[in-house]
Amino acid sequence: FLHKDKFSRGLGKFHSTPYREPIELPDEEYPFILSTGRVLFHWHTGTMTR
To answer: In 3-state terms, what secondary structure has residue 30?
Structure first.
């Protein structure tokens, strides 16, 4: 299987991303931030309980 002992170019490659404020913030009318528990890269990978 791919990358069994090491990555093909040595170490893994990581990238940082700049912080962005959320589009909507809590306020008096809606005091909570609700989340599905998923992040962008979890979609369609079978990580949710079926």
So the answer is: coil
User: Does the global pTM surpass 0.85?
Assistant: no
CA 33 to CA 47: how far, in whole Å? 22
Helix (H, G, I), strand (E, B) or coil at 10: strand
**Residue 4: both structure tokens together:** 């069994």
C-alpha span between 31 and 8 (Å, rounded)? 48
Instruction: Please answer whether residues 47 and 38 qualify as being in contact, where contact means their C-beta atoms are separated by less than 8 angstroms.
Output: yes
Backbone Cα Rg of the chain:
18
Single-letter amino acid, residue 49: T
Q: Tens-of-pLDDT digits for all 50 residues of the chain?
A: 677 777 777 777 788 889 888 888 999 999 998 877 666 666 665 555 55
